[in-house]
């Protein structure tokens, strides 16, 4: 339910110096909480200049055991432009950009959606077990919501931020207050969960740290700085949702429309400053919009990978790693090279490779010239990984070997002498799996596919069903409808005599799973390209991942599984924990979790292009009476 209704926006050009959220209110009311925290209850005549980054926020601190805080933030989501009218001196003087609130990007003027006049959105830093309070103000001309990606929301399912699943969206000129506990540590993030808004730029880092004595990797690095957190995003221009045009790193990067070389000073690159002799924790998040997996590496530096999706793993020393949409990797970089400037390299594949889209940033040692760029082009020496002698090690490679027959083939492991790529499934968590040996799992089989609609539109599907958003919020309105009459799934459609393999099925797709049970999901991908699947409300363990390479085997995946031909990790293996995983083309993944978080949780492909076109569903975990009662302030 919306928490505050604001007066209509003025028409015409946006006036950035005041937001007339409520012209009738003469004062700004403030609520005082225990501990001196003041919450704003009235946004009458709010001044946009007061909304910005959180560099001096009191919750940006050294975390101490037993010292959690309440952390209050305000986020204004609004229309903006890269290279807009604010940019007067910025195109000629990079130092002027911040003062002008100019978003330079790659130098191409195009409409975007910003948060507090920033794109990416301002990073939020806090400590594990802090209470997070965020007022989101919608100054768009359309509805919005904010999802807190990686937070389980076990105590506050109504704060997950998925429109018409866990909340009603914020309509234009409305404010919604999100309030939840940071129930875990790690590299998480926040982003809009409506339409293409994430692609327009409504996304930012949410970094949750823990006390030094609780951090298993604390001794591996000397510094953990927010300026070393990189948000990578593939972008489109104007409203052309069919073509990827560039990749940006923290909102900056070279212009691919120009013929200028990479090292031309007219390009704007993100710069990371480091000092020789120290070790730095760096965080990389990929806000992927298209089918563009990316490869990340740093020139002449090894990366000690220590975490994925905010979950600690046994460290792996690698030359780089791959990311699909929504995946995160943390690594430790040791500043042990000659003090100069080095390229940080992001190379795009699939749709990005078709357009030769790549990007760079600069790793700059103190002592090197600040204004100089590294020598050579960004992708120089990328071919080195194809050399047969001592090939480099890459993590999470989305490209898999083709099998010699219809039998299941294992992903690339770290053990073969000539193939040092480490598959996702071979990463090992620092935490043992949270269930005893020989646990019996309830297995659910799911499939990813696409089909053409009668009008020629390309639709993406889960279980051969394209998702259509409901008209009421499933969580808040669950007592207002009968499940079987309101939403559908594979079983209910089959009971109606519908064959979704032959006809187009579009509906409110809800998959029902029991609560407080060990659940196993086998997700098969019927397409050639990889698809990153994200599950809200849970962190799962990846116990199987492989390629079958033909659709006949995928159609018979249940029978292959009964025959023992889908391999799983041993019960005592500490399988890697993730919230987003790539399902390889013509392959599968096997995910396990305990369904101890009853509610309605979105389950979807995280490529924006695909989820918008139907590759989504909702997991209904448990029965209505097992779900937490929604506080009155957000009831219908």
Short précis:
It contains 8 helices and 37 strands.
What does this structure look like?
It is a single chain. The protein is mainly beta and 636 residues long. 6% of the residues lie in helices and 34% in strands. The strands form 8 sheets. Strands 24, 25, 26, 30, 32, 33 and 35 form a 7-stranded mixed beta sheet that branches. It starts with a strand and ends in a 15-residue tail after the last strand. The model is unreliable at 3-28 and 402-419 (pLDDT under 50).
- Poorly predicted runs are 3-28, 402-419
Shape: globular
Largest sheet: 7 strands, mixed
Radius of gyration over C-alpha positions, nearest whole angstrom: 24 Å
Write the layout of secondary structure elements.
Blueprint: E1 4-5, E2 30-32, E3 38-40, E4 70-82, H1 97-100, E5 110-115, E6 124-127, E7 131-139, E8 146-149, E9 174-181, E10 186-192, H2 197-200, E11 203-209, E12 223-235, E13 246-249, E14 271-274, E15 279-287, E16 294-298, E17 303-308, E18 311-318, E19 320-323, E20 328-334, E21 341-348, H3 351-354, E22 358-365, E23 394-395, E24 409-410, E25 442-452, E26 458-462, E27 466-467, H4 483-486, H5 490-495, E28 506-507, E29 510-513, E30 518-525, E31 531-535, E32 540-547, H6 551-555, H7 557-562, E33 577-578, E34 580-583, E35 587-594, E36 599-605, H8 608-612, E37 616-621
Parallel strand pairs: 4-7, 6-11, 12-15, 14-22, 19-23, 25-30, 27-28, 29-37
Antiparallel strand pairs: 1-9, 2-3, 4-5, 7-9, 8-10, 10-11, 12-13, 15-20, 16-19, 16-21, 17-18, 17-20, 21-22, 24-32, 25-26, 30-35, 31-34, 31-36, 32-33, 32-35, 36-37
